[in-house]
Amino acid sequence: MVKNILLIVSVSYTLALIIASLITLNGVPSLGYSFDDKIYHLVAYAGLAFLWANYCQPYKTKWTPIMVFFGAAFLGFILELLQYLVNPNRSYDTFDLIANSFGAIIGTLIAKHINVYKLK
Known about the structure:
Elements: H1 2-22, H2 36-56, H3 64-86, H4 94-113
Helix pairs in contact: 1-2, 2-3, 2-4, 3-4
């Protein structure tokens, strides 16, 4: 049951992230820093990696965290390229890609220590 719910949440989160990455976002609240956007990227990809790493834990091998990290980082790279190619109001930013990758690392590491299947 938990596995099915986690799959639905993971897929929904991924689709929401893809849509949010490709549309023009207006009125995003400011945190008061010049690097707000990078914080949003880091948190978004930490969530992405956390969800998918937890979903994949029953099939845990030593490669699962690495595959989740590379999958999330690759999605971030593809979305950065698509932003540049598809939406004239969005642009490719290498620092966004770096923030995405650090977020994927953080989410994967947190998932290694917090297993939602064992929470009660």
